[in-house]
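An example makes the point: we let one protein speak, the chain in one-letter code, the fold tokenised, and here it is:
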Amino acid sequence: MTITKSNSLSRLALQKFKKNFWGVFSFYFIVFCAIIAIFAYVFAPDDSKNANQMHLSIHSKPPGFNVKMLTIPSQEISNQSFLSAIFFGKKNTDTEIPIEDYTIENTILKVAPYSEGEVIELSKEISLKRFSKNLTPKEIVHTYIKNRTFLLGTDKYGRDLLSRMLIGIRISFSIGFVAVLISLILGISLGAVAGYFGGKIDMMIMWLINVAWSIPTLLLVIAITLALGKGFWQVFIAVGLTMWVEVARVVRGQVLGVKQMQYVTAAKAMGFTDYRIIIKHILPNSLAPVIVIAAANFAGAILIESGLSFLGIGAQPPTPSWGAMIKDHYSYIILGKAYLAIIPGVGIMSLVMAFMLIGNALRDALDVKR
């Protein structure tokens, strides 16, 4: 009977969630972003590691900018695996040169580097032997000189902004997932123990919660980051260690109410261990509010990471991070190139908004009083 009731309540919650347009829309948007985060290098026009191909001659170009790009193949032989290239980017050692024009004379390829609005460079001469020996001059031109369109333009280093944005999603999703996972493990564990056992254990954990709660989140994250060092994983741990407090308080309150239920008393009378009672009987009936908090914490973690990257203590260059991209380009707002900062800003806003909307939809769906 209990299983049937539980299933029916879950089904009702799912039906209520499906009726919430913004909740469903946000869910599909988050799934779409998650797919991009996993396969970022497959979708990115610049699939080199961290999308770090720099072309200073075409820096800060507007969306839709088009240029001829000459690729000079490297003489090094890459032994990178196929899966490594898909998930971590290619270890690209080829040289790319934006050009305005080219001519072929005998066995020499003469190119005029791109120089719009800048000092005109002398033409460069490149031997056709640098390319494949099995190709004719026309085939070399067709293979190694292509028109490149930068859909979102280029940043101040001449890197493809679209590729940097796509790979930056991975940072935001990673920080959210790891931070929420750490906060749930700590918060649920400490909150359940405090609520179930009470007494001195509850007082000690509540004292720890109040101390952690009284410290400003960003200040605590900065202190932990400085103690652990700058880096990718250090930020994940730092953000996770600051987000468990709210989870612990909510779980403690839920456990205090649920442990008074008759089925918990019956479980104790049957001789079940405290561990089994907490895991099997109390927590499953206490986690509905935690799911909503987890969605909000996911959004909060993205904002905190963006703030840390803006301050220079988040993900370190050349790793693409939306917060760092805003930091690099916020001064361009007054130079008539505001899109360089607005595009990553819109990315952060969209992802955070999606998690907040799905959190609100889950709250409404799991509210049995409505």
In short: The longest strand covers residues 95-105.
